[in-house]
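Fold Annotation — chain and its backbone
Next Lines — sequence and tokenised fold

***
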Amino acid sequence: MTFKHKGLLALFGGTFDPIHYGHLRPVETLAKQVGLHKIILLPNHVPPHRPQPEASPSQRLEMVRLSIQDNSLFTVDTRELERDSPSYTIETLTELRQEMGPDQPLAFIIGQDSLLSIHTWYGWEELLDKCHLLVCSRPGYATNFNEPQMQEWLKEHKTDDANKLSQIPNGYIFLGDTPLLDISATEIRKGLSSGNLCDGLIPPLVMAYIKQQHLYQN
């Protein structure tokens, strides 16, 4: 996938098992706050730190495509689904940076929970050499690191000026003010398996696909 944009692009990775409004609505709000031109959804194939998905890679990809088919803000990149090995963010960002060149402003969207555990990620020290980090608020999570050196890292790179994200290609951390939608894919799967419709949590086309494929049933 090749992009030639002057504006800010952002990547948003996840298992998306299934994709739901808790994924989509906060990043849409974030896009308005920071002037994002495009959000590239990156479905994971083998998440390194999580249980294996219930839906197959092809089913999860189809749900992602259905969820964004009428929304021009989003597109999807399948490179992580095409790997047989674990999906490490730094490797994907390195690939994309090589494809886009050194000058394209590029960001990676994470949740507050992921920010506070980012020092456990493989190659985390190199992330800001490749991109900015855009952080969505998450319910129930603190906003400060317990480790003083990590809090200093955050202070060093944090900016409240969204305009800076489009002016240089990488290096900043921006803490967004996003809606706190306490929706989890785990709870949705549990609800669907017990016969709850989960209406209002999942885009209608995705819900129809889940029913058609008999996903998340006991």
Summary: The chain is about 35% helix and 15% strand. The chain has a mean pLDDT of 91. Residues 45 and 81 are 4 Å apart (CA to CA).
